[in-house]
Amino acid sequence: MPLHEFARAKLDEFYQAISPWESGYQTNSFTYVAVRQGADFVLVQGALWLNTVNSKIPYTHFESENVRGGHFHLSELEMDYRQLVDALISGNLNTPRGTLTFPVAGSGHHSVLYTPVHPSATQSQSRVNVVRIGGAEQTVQNQQPNLDWELRGASTPYDGLNDLLTEYGLGALFGDVISVEIIATTVMGIEESSTVSGTVASIGVRLASTLSTKSASVGYRVFSQGKVIARSILLGERMDWHSANGMQIGRAQIDVPLAAVVHCFANYDSNTQNHWWITDPTTAQNARRTVYQTFDDQLSVLQDFINKAAGRGRNARDLESGVAWLFWILGFSVAHLGGTDKTQDAADLIFVSPSGHFAVVECTTGLLRADNKLPLLISRAETVRKNLHASNQGHLKVLPVIITSRPLSEIRADIEQAEKLEVLVIAREALEEMITRTLVAPNADDLFARAERAIRDARERHDLSKVEN
Question: Is 265 exposed, middle or buried (0-12, 13-18, 19+ CB in 10 A)?
């Protein structure tokens, strides 16, 4: 069925937004999981990846009696990504391993939700434009226990449907409707090898191989002693370029003060694609980080705790400790309540900004909805808020925050629910970015204000989506 007029407008808005760099997407691919319904295989979830280089998701195919999953290049179908979208909207997609059905909702049309700057951009420091096309009601949960056991007994075993979804980069299951996301990844980024050495900052960028270097630029802010002392831009035509690993690499140098930190913005056609902090690894402007590094010189223990894999017990406690240390370095006062058996019913952590505002924090090495964490967090934050009001300190703000060591790709389906509940979500990518931010003199009040703004923006985005639909 054709898209409804509003849904078509949203899809066209997405096409228009990425049109300046659309030609940079040369290795597009499609991942999916589907289940049998009668004679058909019906999509459970899918993702159309617009990529500049080959994806790290394995290009493989899985099939058991009632489940299929796979990842293939669009070139195998001899169609471009817009043609694949049209095929999905028609209700049937012919893949190298058979036809997939994408049934419509009760309205008779697929829905379209466009997020111009996906929330993941805040945490990954990379611009990601995402469209979510919705179909019929998601009912696979009713079959999931049987399907999970079938997958465990397959010749290539998986620990259930969620494990298969993760394998193919689909993250957690969207529980409302059958969904296919179109994910337009960044076409330009700051090279992680960029660094400051003495009074010289060496800045490197990578750009999709088919895009014009003349349309590329790098904006930057130079920090010294915790303050911005310079702002400028490097034009692509003034950078030195060469090709490597399927990308164009540009390099330039700028003069900076000793111990400077440089915040760089990779731009294409005046649209920022990625931002990154570059530093002199031998110096730091943050006294708290300097003190912390007395006992964890390379931050290796902190990094290990932040990246703890899913699990309970020691892994979960280590994550709490790592988060507590990190936010102390960032300028907050931190109370770690979840570290002992006697306070297991309390919030994991309480952060206090220099202005006296509070964040009530839950940490998890799993998905956000596991162990009833979101409702418990909201209840605990509300209790703190009521107690502050009762003590005549209701002017102090309280934010509920959930922090996970999982990457954004694994919690995408959970983020929307958390945002609607006005909970700030911090995933692994944001934690890693915050570690980089510890090089600059801390400003916890600014971080708290940014958190408030992120919660407000998410609420307004969902309110607008509700009105439009």
Answer: middle
Contacts of 157 (CB under 8 A, 6+ apart): 151
124 or 172: which carries more pLDDT confidence?
172
Candidate CATH numbers 3.40.50.10750, 2.60.40.10, 1.10.150.450, 1.20.1330.10; the one for domain 188-279: 2.60.40.10
- Where in the chain are the domains? 5-184, 188-279, 287-468
> How does residue 410 score in pLDDT terms, banded at 50, 70 and 90?
confident
Q: Which residue has the tokens 């957690």?
A: 172
CA distance linking residue 33 with residue 58, whole number of Å: 14
Pick the closest to residue 123 from 365, 434, 450 (CA basis): 434
Whether residue 109 is predicted with pLDDT greater than 80 in this model: the reply is yes
CB atoms within 10 A of CB 433: 17
Which H/E stretch holds residue 198?
none
pLDDT mean over 171-176: 86
- State how far the alpha carbon of 345 is from the alpha carbons of 373, 382, 407, 419, in Å: 12, 15, 26, 24
DSSP H/E element including 137: strand 129-137
Q: How many residues does the chain have?
A: 469
| pLDDT winner (highest mean) among 14-28, 340-354, 416-430 | 14-28
287-468 belongs to CATH 3.40.91.70: yes
Q: What is the residue-wise DSSP string for 67-125?
A: EEEEEEEGGGGT--HHHHHHHHHHTEEEETTEEEE----TTSS-EEEEESS-THHHHHS
SS3 360: strand
C-beta atoms surrounding 57 within 10 Å? 17
Q: Which H or E element spans position 62?
A: strand 61-63
Query: Both ends of the chain: CA-CA distance in Å?
Result: 18
Mapping DSSP onto H, E and C, the string for 229-262 reads EEEEEEEHHHCEEEEECCEEEEEEEEECCCCCEE
Greater confidence (263 vs 285) lies with: 263
Q: What are phi and psi of 327, to 5 degrees?
A: -75, -25
What does pTM read for this prediction?
0.75
For 60, the token pair is 């493989």
Buried b (16+ CB within 10 A) or exposed e, 207-237: bbbebbbebbbbbbbbbbeeeeeeeeebebe
Beta partners for residue 360, in sequence order: 350, 400
